[in-house]
């Protein structure tokens, strides 16, 4: 192990790319490794690190789809800090919103399609599934938005990796499951998709479809790896994640957020929309806002501002712990016009 003698990147012939062991994780890591070889002209080697999340899946107690505690990233960060790997590749949506001392997020490569998809029996869409159909998901965000469609679907909690979840449909255990399109795209299983969900009905998780490349903050490699960064994607996910971080301070309800880059009159703009729902989907607060796509500070500001508007509209009262959510209280300061709505779904 050469971790104790800091070397400059050009001294390293082979960069060690840390990844979780799942098929999705290693596929993503190999994609980033290919970019590293191409852009930096160095060799790469994948180093598989077993995370707490993987261990518990192997032991038969898989974690929920959207663990918020970073169980999938801790071991990779430890390996970075210990000098066992040079860079780590994560699904960005699995990263906790708070930073880790000594670890830098150095690049966000171009994003995959961030939408959620349905994999259903007989190629059915959600609208074609009869009331009472079992739709599997372990994500409170997906469950709340499924309930909000008002189709009478029976949302059942399932866990496990992408393969396991698709297998539940093929085995007849569920009529359908909802997954991130990006995951299926990366492992070459888009042919399983029966419907791509419009973000108007199913807003993805903040950061969904994007990858995060991390390395040690004090490693000279950090500067070199910025060539992997896609500034538009980076700004978009920063806006989404800042909204998430701000909302996490004031509420524990399911959250969806998506920022798109669109061409405005005076150049590219970031258009951010977000939703906070009660767990059972009967109540939702939704809002959107846009800002010129300039720097990361502007993107973060957009996210924080939108989150604050959602909190002002009562998002903090959509208590995920409450089985019978109540209407958010009136807010005299809230504007009456705009794209916010508090509704019974
Ligand atoms: N929570 C697990 C996870 N983390 C990232 C992805 C998919 C790839 C991505 O969103 O970038 C998935 C699977 C899923 O949600 O279906």
Account of the 3D structure:
This protein folds into 3 domains: 121 residues, 3-Layer(aba) Sandwich (D-Maltodextrin-Binding Protein, domain 2), CATH 3.40.190.10; 81 residues, D-Maltodextrin-Binding Protein, domain 2 (3-Layer(aba) Sandwich); 111 residues, 2-Layer Sandwich (Double Stranded RNA Binding Domain). The N and C termini lie far apart (57 Å). Helix 4 links the parallel strand 6 and strand 7. The chain has a 5-stranded mixed beta sheet with strand order 2-1-3-10-4, sandwiched between helices. Strands 7-6-8-5-9 form a 5-stranded mixed beta sheet, with helices on both faces. The protein has a 4-stranded antiparallel beta sheet with strand order 11-12-13-14. The longest helix has 20 residues. Helix content is 29%, strand content 23%. With 345 residues, the chain is an alpha/beta fold.
Overall geometry comes to globular
Going across the biggest sheet, name each strand in turn. Answer: 2-1-3-10-4
Strand content: 15-25%
Order of helices and strands: EHEHHEEEEHEHEHEEHHEEEHE
Structural class: alpha/beta
CATH class division of the largest domain? Alpha Beta
Q: What bound compounds does this protein have?
A: the ligand NCc1[nH]cc(CCC(=O)O)c1CC(=O)O
What's the number of helices?
9
Q: Mean pLDDT across all residues, rounded?
A: 88
pLDDT < 50 runs, ≥5 residues: 1-9, 321-345
- Count every beta strand, where a strand is a DSSP E run of 2 or more residues: 14
Distance between the termini: 57 Å
CATH superfamily of the largest domain: Periplasmic binding protein-like II
Structural domains: how many: 3
Gyration radius over CA: 20 Å
CATH architecture of the largest domain: 3-Layer(aba) Sandwich
What is CATH's topology name of the largest domain? D-Maltodextrin-Binding Protein, domain 2
Q: How helix-rich are the residues, as a percent range?
A: 25-40%
Could you describe the largest sheet, including whether it forms a barrel? 5 strands, mixed
Subunit structure: Monomer.
Modified residues (S-(dipyrrolylmethanemethyl)cysteine): 251
Protein name: Porphobilinogen deaminase
Catalytic activity: 4 porphobilinogen + H2O = hydroxymethylbilane + 4 NH4(+)
């Amino acid at each position: 192990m050469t971790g104790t003698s800091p070397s400059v990147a050009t001294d390293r012939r082979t960069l060690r790319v840390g990844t979780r062991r799942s098929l999705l994780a290693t596929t993503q890591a190999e994609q980033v490794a290919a970019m590293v070889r191409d852009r930096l002209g160095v060799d790469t080697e994948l180093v598989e690190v077993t995370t707490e999340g993987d261990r518990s899946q192997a032991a038969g107690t898989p974690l929920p789809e959207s663990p918020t505690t970073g169980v999938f990233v801790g071991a990779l960060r430890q390996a970075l800090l210990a000098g066992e790997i040079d860079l780590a590749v994560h699904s960005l949506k699995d990263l906790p919103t708070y930073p880790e001392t000594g670890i830098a997020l150095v690049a966000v490569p171009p994003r995959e399609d961030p939408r959620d998809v349905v994999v259903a029996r007989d190629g059915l869409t959600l609208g074609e599934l009869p009331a009472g159909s079992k739709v599997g998901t372990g994500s409170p965000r997906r469950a709340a938005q499924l309930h909000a469609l008002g189709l009478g679907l029976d949302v059942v909690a399932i866990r496990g990796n992408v393969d396991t979840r698709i297998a539940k449909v093929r085995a007849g255990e569920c009529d359908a499951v909802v997954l991130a399109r990006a995951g299926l795209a990366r492992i070459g299983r888009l042919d399983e998709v029966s419907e791509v969900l419009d973000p108007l009905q199913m807003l993805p998780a903040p950061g969904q479809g994007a990858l995060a490349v991390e390395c040690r903050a004090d490693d000279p490699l950090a500067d070199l790896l910025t060539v992997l960064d896609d500034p538009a994607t980076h700004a978009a996910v920063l806006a989404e994640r800042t909204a998430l971080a701000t909302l996490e301070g004031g509420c524990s309800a399911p959250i969806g957020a998506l920022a798109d880059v669109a061409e405005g009159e005076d150049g590219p703009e970031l258009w951010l929309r977000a939703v906070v729902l009660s767990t059972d989907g009967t109540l939702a607060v939704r809002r959107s806002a846009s800002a010129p796509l300039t720097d990361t500070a502007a993107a973060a500001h957009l996210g924080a501002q939108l989150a604050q508007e959602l909190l002002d509209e009562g998002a903090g009262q959509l208590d995920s712990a409450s089985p019978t959510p109540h209407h958010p209280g009136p807010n005299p300061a809230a504007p009456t016009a705009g794209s916010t709505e508090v509704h019974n779904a």
